[in-house]
Every structure is written in structure tokens, then in C-alpha cells.
TrEMBL record:
<protein>
    <recommendedName>
        <fullName>Glycosyl hydrolase family 32 N-terminal domain-containing protein</fullName>
    </recommendedName>
</protein>
<dbReference type="InterPro" id="IPR023296">
    <property type="entry name" value="Glyco_hydro_beta-prop_sf"/>
</dbReference>
Length: 326
């Protein structure tokens, strides 16, 4: 596993370019949860806006797909409000191309039927034409044998589509309040590793269970794999870690490697790979892609005022890291 080449060094997230800003400069108002796709010509971005509990429309209330020529200035082409799903909250979406030139959108939201997170998918010839009424189930608590599954990251290698997702492990004892808030991640009833599902058609997935377990220190509560990039010797992945449910929503970024996508090894158990210098230190939902040899790192970062914004750090070819810490 040590043969996997790590082409990046830790970077200063505050040096990144601001891509999107929150509605208000207050704690609980966030924009981020990004997923980024480059189709060879344009950049596509999925992102979420959230408001604090108790606000006019609380939690994850709006998700959107946006397009850009340069990967910095994005224009929305489609969006969905949580009420269209009858849901209390939405979280990460993931956009992927289909073999026929269209697009497939994987969405995660709280199922109003049981208050558990789930993942659905919808397909269209263009992202502007997604119809939420055509969504179909991909992974649910029942189909995975978990307490909920969310935050999909989807990639294709050869004929196989890999779907990584954060999930809530089965409860080990009675916990009648575990789903009362509609977010088991925020109650501390269980831990949250990353699981993997695979598919040969991009539609029907087989659940394989844990591939990135939680650690024993700062990442002992959650280890959520957010993006994967092929590198020399295998793959490098960026994950969110937290020590308890009290750090839910304010995770920090870790790094892991794999030779086969099924077995991952955390390289940052001693501490986060990247953190912000203020407030909670949160740098989360890091989505990385390489375009013409340049690394583009999109991430949600907490600010000094407690709000979260979406930023981009670019690492030119041949450089180990932008603003790398020594």
C-alpha cells in the first residue's frame, strides 16, 4: 500500500478562491457539499444550501446543479427544494455521465417514510431537464441493512460503477430516539464509516458494506469518503472525520489510499490532513479532480463567523501543494 504515490501536500484552505458564499454571515448558514464533474469542455457542480435548525426552512433546503466554463463562476441550471421530496433535509448530490451522452444524478435526502437517509437517482439528456418525479431508489436503510445511507460519490472504472456512501451502522441496542430528529448522524447513537456499492449498468447496485472504517482518534465517529482520484500505484481518497456527534457538520479532512477501491488505509490517523485556522477548523466535502495535469480541490470551509463557504484551490502540474504547510 505504501507504493501508492501521493502527489499532494497539505494546503492552506484560506488561500483558495471563493466559489459560492452563504446566505447570511452567521453560524448554521452554509453553502457547499460540492460534487464536481468535468465533461471535457465544461465544469458541472452540484451543491447544497443549508440554514440552521429553527430557521425559516431549516437544514438542507436547496440543492442545485450549476455549469461553468472555467470552474470558478457557476450558473444554476436546475434545483430542487426539500419540500418537493417531502423531506426534512437534503445533503450531497453527485452528477455522472451516462453511456448515451446524458447524465445521471444521485441524490441523498431524509426519507419522510422512516426519517432515515437514502440515496435515489434520476436520469436526463441534460442536467437542466432532471425531473424529481422520476427518481428511483438506489440505496436505502432497508436495502443496505443500515440505519441510513447518504452522501454518494460515484465513479466508473472500466465496466464497473463504484458508489461510495456514508452510512449509519446498525444499532447495537435499544435507541428509540435515534431517528427522532431525522438525522441519526447528529445524535451519537452509532458510528458512520464509508460503504461501497457496485453496479455494471449504473442503475442496480450491490452493497458490499464497509470499505473505509472509522479510526480510533479524531476520526473515531465518522470517516466519510468524499472523492477518489487515480494515482500511480492505486487511488488516493479524501475523507471527512469527526470524533463525536458534537462535531457533526464541522468535520475535518483526512486522506486515505487504496490499491483496489475495496480496501482503504487511512494515512491521517494522527490528525486531520487539512484544517481551517479558525472557528471549528472544518474543511469538509473535499472533491478533487485533475484537469490537464492540474489538481482542482473544491471544499466547504468554515469561516471565522461560523458560516460555511465553498472554495477552490488549484495545484498546477509538478507542484506538491498550493500554499503547502512545511
Amino acid at each position: 500500500m505504501h507504493r501508492v504515490h501521493l502527489p499532494l501536500a497539505p494546503f492552506d484552505p484560506t488561500a483558495g478562491t471563493v466559489v459560492l458564499t452563504p446566505e447570511k454571515n452567521e453560524p448554521g448558514y452554509w453553502v457547499g457539499c460540492a460534487g464536481v464533474l468535468h465533461d471535457g469542455e465544461r465544469y458541472w457542480l452540484t451543491y447544497r444550501r443549508r440554514r440552521p435548525r429553527g430557521a425559516e426552512t431549516e437544514r438542507g433546503w436547496r440543492c442545485a446543479v450549476a455549469v461553468s466554463e472555467d470552474g470558478v463562476g457557476f450558473t444554476d441550471v436546475w434545483s430542487v427544494h426539500k419540500d418537493e421530496l417531502g423531506s426534512s433535509s437534503m445533503e450531497r448530490f453527485c452528477l455522472t455521465p451516462t453511456d448515451d451522452g446524458g447524465f445521471r444524478l444521485f441524490i441523498s435526502y431524509v426519507d419522510p417514510a422512516d426519517n432515515r437517509w437514502r440515496i435515489d437517482a434520476l436520469t436526463a439528456e441534460d442536467p437542466s431537464k432532471f425531473d424529481i418525479a422520476t427518481r428511483r431508489p438506489v440505496l436505502t436503510a432497508a436495502s443496505t441493512g443500515t440505519e441510513g445511507v447518504k452522501d454518494p460519490y460515484v465513479m466508473r472504472v472500466g465496466p464497473v460503477t463504484y458508489l461510495f456512501a456514508s452510512y449509519a451502522e446498525p444499532l447495537t441496542g435499544p435507541a428509540p430516539e435515534a431517528h427522532s430528529t431525522g438525522d441519526i448522524y447528529n445524535v451519537g447513537a452509532t458510528t458512520h464509516p464509508t460503504g461501497l456499492a457496485t453496479s455494471l449498468d449504473g442503475e442496480t447496485f450491490t452493497w458490499h458494506g464497509t470499505v473505509l472504517p472509522v479510526g480510533e482518534g479524531w476520526n473515531r465517529y465518522q470517516a466519510r469518503l468524499n472523492s477518489v482520484v487515480p494515482v500511480q500505484g492505486g487511488y488516493v481518497g479524501f475523507y471527512d472525520g469527526s470524533a463525536s456527534h458534537e462535531e457533526n457538520y464541522e468535520e475535518r479532512c483526512g486522506i486515505a489510499v487504496s490499491a483496489d477501491l475495496f480496501t482503504w488505509h487511512r494515512l491521517s490517523d494522527d490528525g486531520p490532513w487539512v484544517t481551517a485556522p479558525h472557528a471549528s477548523g472544518s474543511v469538509r466535502y473535499l472533491d478533487a479532480l485533475v484537469v490537464d495535469g492540474e489538481w482542482r480541490l473544491y471544499y466547504e470551509m468554515t469561516r471565522a463567523d461560523g458560516a460555511h463557504e465553498l472554495r477552490l484551490t488549484r495545484v498546477p502540474p509538478g507542484r506538491p501543494g498550493a500554499g503547502a504547510r512545511r
